Amino acid sequence: MTNVRALAAQTLFQVVDKGQSLTTQLPYASRQLPVKDRALLQQICYGVLRYLPSLEHYCQQLLEQPLKGKNRVFQFLLYVGIYQLQHMRVPAHAAVAETVNAANKLQAPGLKGLINAVLRNFQRAQDTLEASADAIPVCKYNHPGWFIKKLQAAYPQQWQDILHDNQQQAPMWLRVNQRQSSTADYAARLDGEGIAHTLDPDFVDGILLTKPVDVQQLPDFAQGASSVQDAAAQMAARLLDPQDSEHILDACAAPGGKTCHILELADANVIALDADGERLKRVDENLKRLHLSAQCLEANAATPDTWWQGEQFDRILLDVPCSATGVIRRHPDIKWLRRATDIDELAALQASILDAIWPLLKPGGTLVYATCSVLPQENTEQVTAFLARTADAQLTPLHAQDTPDKPGLQLLPGHTDGFYYARLKKQ
Ligand SMILES: C[S@@+](CC[C@H](N)C(=O)[O-])C[C@H]1O[C@@H](n2cnc3c(N)ncnc32)[C@H](O)[C@@H]1O
């Protein structure tokens, strides 16, 4: 199959109906396309996932009933068509013709008439349909209702900005490998290649690219001169502040972005632990590209008695599994794969990892707790509860308002991804 729209419809069916992640499905579909068409496939899949509730709403109005069973993929093809008409700069006649043509490629010439009619009717009724979608919050903001409610409660002033920022394309940040060059020197090399960028003094290892580029265009990327990592994620290693010769645990390490950053900053003995063996292979690949080394260990952070050798750590990074609600703009499928009930389960898992790992920290040692979530239950509330039940844990404030009743630093999506950090010291 080499039809972009047909592949997009199949990919979206796998993600939305079958619960697969876009991160696994998109590369699979991309490989079937010539390189020149891959960006379009990505743009359509991201776009439909960003606007799914409103696209569903339009189809509800335009079809007598949703397409089901063996025709289900054509429901997603309709979303692909309408998304192009509403949000892309493809001429309308081409968007309709190409979407109808995709039905042929998906072996259903009998549905061409229906698809053509629905797309034409959308064009005719677009203003009325958009107004009716705007009256329904889930369609207006294109986020699940449970998540909108949680944001409203947590951020009475900012919730609409967060929802708006989640719908934007994420910027590309680089992390400069300080073992190979300074940030300023690498920025000068980008200038030499004509790659526009800006620096931000708050992120000393980071460079914000004006436009995303293929990593192959970056100077000495294959040799480990830089990595792609959002600026918010780059704070983890700096807050941990690793020192030479220290014994450090990165307890939820895969795919290894933060492990590698720690090792770029210090000659430390690092254990990179993760429960997922497949993801752990990516840590190894990243270490190799950057010419770094760590001990990679497939194990469960919540049960150290099964793997810990008894030597306490100077520093521990706990970048725990979380709802990933801070990185929705990079992974719009999160909105539809996550359920409200997941949050309680994740919070319980995070608490059990915190409790199990704390005894592994030396007295005087530092633990950095991190999530890419914007939900207080996984962040401030999690750390407040941990401090209350852990007598020898003390908060090391990251800013003036970082206190035990509202601990840590919450970054919201915008300039960087949404992230949360709290730094704890063992007395
Ligand atoms: C947020 S990701 C870590 C990202 C990583 N620190 C980085 O910067 O590249 C969370 C990781 O926790 C792992 N994980 C989930 N449950 C775990 C457990 N019980 N023990 C250890 N790792 C776990 C997942 O496999 C996932 O790789």
Automatic annotation (TrEMBL):
Keywords: Cytoplasm, Methyltransferase, RNA-binding, rRNA processing, S-adenosyl-L-methionine, Transferase
One GO BP annotation of this record: methylation
Binding residues for S-adenosyl-L-methionine: C252, A253, A254, P255, G256, G257, K258, D274, D319
Cited SUPFAM superfamilies: NusB-like, S-adenosyl-L-methionine-dependent methyltransferases
Alphabetized Pfam families for the sequence: Methyltr_RsmB-F, NusB, RsmF-B_ferredox
Domain SAM-dependent MTase RsmB/NOP-type: residue ranges: 162-427
Function: Specifically methylates the cytosine at position 967 (m5C967) of 16S rRNA.
The name this protein goes by in its record: 16S rRNA (cytosine(967)-C(5))-methyltransferase
Organism annotation: Pseudoalteromonas viridis
